[in-house]
Design brief:
Blueprint (H helix, E strand, L loop, with lengths): L4 H9 L10 H22 L1 H6 L5 H4 L14 H7 L13 E7 L7 E5 L1 H14 L9 E4 L9 H11 L3 E4 L11 H11 L3 E4 L1 H10 L9 E4 L6 H11 L2 E6 L9 E2 L8 E2 L4 E6 L13 E7 L10 E7 L31 E7 L2
Parallel strand pairs: 3-4, 3-5, 5-6, 6-7
Antiparallel strand pairs: 1-2, 1-13, 7-8, 8-9, 10-11, 11-12
Helix pairs in contact: 6-7, 9-10
The structure holds zinc ion.
Length: 355
């Protein structure tokens, strides 16, 4: 079957029969149905969305993707000011709350709420999405927060374990301070680590100072932020490995889109997320190929659905078909968040709490 491992996974998730070939029209039919269901659930269960979607008659108004224009955006300010009233489940069903603080901002922090099922969606995505770069023979070093149950590194470890891939949950390496690098590098050498997941700046620094690790490192996944060409090339050159990129935010449920073996842009997790690219000033939908602001709607999240959420990243749909043959759309590599005007500063610190 052409396409990525994500195609087969998406086909199963949207209910196609075993072995069925994923087609664009299947994805879109599913997404439209799930969009309507999400709108209905949000309207019925969340005070915030009940008010925001008051004038929307879902049956009458939402019949195709052009009708998305009828649905109001949700913004970071909404999340900061009305987060709790965005919830669609009782607080007892919440298993995880992630709090994002922003430097230099007087506003409330962003709090994103998840149920067990919401977290399961992420684990399942990591299980299947990571198969593009690792298999049972690999040992993957996780340089992301992983101490607490439910943290990104913990969900990644659990997803990988389901696919038979062993991992070492190490935790984040400082972007500014290289004093702990020696300890990470001895671990990589001692354990014969074959894959690394981390931030681009610190992973590039590790690669520069230890080209000998090229002997066993086969692949690297860069996550958490904008990836410069320079850092990507440094890692590819020093470790002679494949560098994959991933796009996701806490709001999108961490995993958002994943590179395929072509490694030019990333394919979104379309069974769980409906992405749009809009013109920031007017809010109008932009045609394929045009750069604009990334907006997404969650299609399967229970605790806190995001409806047309303006994440503030700059992105575009790649107009050319991907060489992997996937039926999934393809986002170009995401640009720096600062590229969108009037966007609040990027989150500075992330704390995770369990109620
Ligand atoms: Zn592809």
């Amino acid at each position: 079957m052409p396409g990525t491992v994500l195609d087969a996974w998406t086909a199963r998730k949207i209910g196609l029969p075993a072995g069925a070939f994923l087609r664009r029209e299947d994805i879109e039919r599913y997404q439209l149905a799930m969009l309507r269901r999400t709108l209905q659930t949000a309207k019925e269960n969340s005070p915030f969305y009940a008010k925001r979607l008051l004038g929307l008659d879902i049956e009458r108004d939402i019949n195709c993707f052009e009708d998305l224009q009828r649905i109001p955006f949700t913004t970071e300010a909404d999340l900061r000011n009305s987060g709790l009233s965005m919830l669609c489940v009782p607080q007892r069903d919440i298993s995880r709350i992630v709090t994002l603080h922003t430097s230099g901002s007087a506003g409330n922090p962003k709090r994103i709420y998840f149920t067990e099922e919401d977290q399961e969606l992420t684990i399942d995505f990591f299980h299947h999405g990571m198969r593009i770069m690792v298999d049972e023979s690999d040992l993957l070093l996780i340089l992301l927060p992983c101490e607490r149950p439910g943290s990104v590194g913990d969900l990644l470890r659990r997803g990988l374990a389901r696919g038979g891939t062993a991992s070492v949950p190490y935790g984040p390496v400082s972007r500014e301070d290289a004093s702990a690098d020696a300890a990470v590098l001895s671990l990589i050498r001692a354990r014969g680590v074959s894959a690394v997941v981390g931030g681009p700046v610190e992973t590039a620094r590790l690669a520069r100072s230890a080209p000998d690790c090229a002997a066993h490192i086969k692949s690297v996944l860069l996550s958490t932020e904008y990836v410069s060409d320079e850092n990507r090339k440094t890692i590819e050159t020093c470790w002679e490995c494949k560098v994959f990129e991933h796009y996701g935010t806490t709001e999108s449920g961490l995993g958002g889109a994943m590179a395929c073996h072509v490694r030019e842009g990333y394919h979104p997790r379309e069974a769980d997320l409906l992405f749009e690219i809009i013109e920031p000033e007017s809010g109008r939908a932009l045609p394929c190929g045009a750069w604009g602001e990334v907006v997404f709607t969650t299609l399967t999240r229970r605790a806190m659905p995001f409806i047309r959420y303006r994440i503030g990243d700059r992105g575009r749909w790649r107009p050319d078909p991907c060489g992997c043959g996937s039926a999934l759309k393809r986002l170009d590599r995401i640009g720096k968040r600062a590229a969108i005007k009037n966007r609040p500063a990027a989150p500075r610190a992330e704390t995770e709490t369990k109620p």
